[in-house]
Amino acid sequence: MTNLKEPSFRESVDLMFNRAVALMDLPPGLEEKIRVCNATYTVRFGVRLRGQIHTFTGYRSVHSEHMEPVKGGIRYAMGVNQDEVEALAALMTYKCALVEAPFGGSKGGLRIDPREYEEHELELITRRFAYELAKRDLIHPSQNVPAPDMGTGEREMAWIADQYKRMNTTDINAVACVTGKPQNAGGIAGRVEATGRGVQYALQEFFRHPEDIKAAGLKGTLEGKRVIVQGLGNVGFHAAKFLSQEDDAIITGIIERDGALFNPDGLDVDAVRAWIMKHDGVTGYPDASHHADGATVLEEDCDILIPAALEGVINMSNAKRIKAPLIIEAANGPVTAGADDILRQKGTVIIPDMYANAGGVTVSYFEWVKNLSHIRFGRMQRRQEEARHQLVVDELERLDRYLGDAWSMTPQFKDKYLRGADELELVRSGLDDTMRIAYQSMREVWHSRKDVDDLRTAAYLVSIGKVAASYRAKGL
Ligand code: GLU
What CATH number is associated with residue 164? Predict the structure, then answer.
């Protein structure tokens, strides 16, 4: 493999799919049906800005409609192209199947550098793009539900939702046409942090399994583990923040567009993020060494490497030098198929993208359900739950008085126990449960089948199995 040409992102996804599917016993032709992208729509539209018409190119690709709506983000970046969007749409199919979010896979992209435009210009562009997609049902609560991705966020999703509503004034479910909206526009608590939170939950689950920790040549828990993260955008930032502040991992390296920061004693993730916001990069950040060629820091000694930026950053040219024994793919497709071969042979454990970054679409699923049910999670139960807990606390207080010094309630017990779960707690609980169950389904295959020696193949086997089952149920 090492002497061969580096596969493209889409080829990588196909190669990984083929490797898994060769171990399955699918009916003739079904493999091909699942692998191919059903349709990709390309649109070129003009928007009048700064006194002239600017033409933009956008895509929405639908990989699989075995379940509808189809789901997946919309990316704003100059590198967007049809192959990339199709690879990402395929990953969405497998991702949704793996975490049991009842969607097919889709993805969209607009070739644009969002930093070059003013907010009001981006609004015009986004509304026009949304109009082009919505009029073809490529944005639709029951057909195709976009979400944020690289270069987009809550703001763009609010514009898209509003645009769809303007075009469908009597659709009672209009707000469910897109997820990742701000909370005051139909969003859900915990969506912004969801993908990073999912990365944390994935690692927590990994570290609950001694056999898996051993497979990576690691010991103990997340506490004290040295972590290098590439990309301090929404996903990388939240993952690094939660791992360092809640699990006591040490973020030793942060790689950004303008170089990398390294500090063996640990970086303050909030401080680095604030620095990036203010200075448009990490350069000049005081409490760390700065490496102009950021990518070299991917090769530094560490326990866990978190690529949370672009695809293809770990490839055939640097895979051999990657020292991390455990890689968790917070980005989509950060390891090429060629690099995957090299790393597997080295014994590196890779927690694959379709699982590792599925937290975003999982919470999108909760948001979509919330929108369709027109009620916030917990609204009916919360106070009733508190009232029932109050009964227990009253009894314990009686016991407390009766037993005098011999026994008393632990401080904070009362407050913690009495508080009914709000929407954020419910979202986190649902996400945690999803990440645990999906991990267990992968590791079961990883450890029980002699012909499967990595989590990625296991993930493909589980998800392709689910997609195949739903095609079969449809009689295809
Ligand atoms: N863009 C995210 C992803 O790649 C989220 C998709 C969604 O929430 O639908 O998974």
Answer: 3.40.50.10860
The crossing angle, in degrees rounded to 10, of helices 194-206 and 423-448 is 40
In a shared domain, residues 162 and 86: yes
Nearest CA to ligand 1 atom 9: 72
Q: Is 364 in the pocket of ligand 1 (CB under 6 A)?
A: yes
Q: Tell me if 198 is assigned to some domain.
A: yes
Residues 180, 218 within the same domain: no
- pLDDT grade, residue 4 (50/70/90)? low
Residue-wise pLDDT tens digits, 223-247: 999 999 999 999 999 999 999 999 9
- Residues 166 and 274 grouped into a single domain: no
Is there an atom of ligand 1 within 6 Å of 454 CB? no
Chain mean position to CA 334: 13
Domain boundary among 327, 359, 391: 359
330 and 278 in a common domain: yes
Instruction: Please state the φ and ψ torsions of residue 350, each to the nearest 5 degrees.
Output: -115, 120
**Which residue of the set 71, 107, 241, 466 is catalytic?**
107
Go through the chain and tell me how many residues it has.
476
Active site residue 225: no
Q: Which atom of ligand 1 is nearest to the CA of 95?
A: 10
- The answer to whether residues 193 and 238 touch, using CB atoms and an 8 Å cutoff, is yes
Stated pTM of the model: 0.96
474 pLDDT above the threshold of 90: no
| Phi/psi of residue 175, nearest 5 degrees | -65, -20
Last residue in a domain, options 187, 217, 240: 187
The total number of structural domains that make up the chain: 2
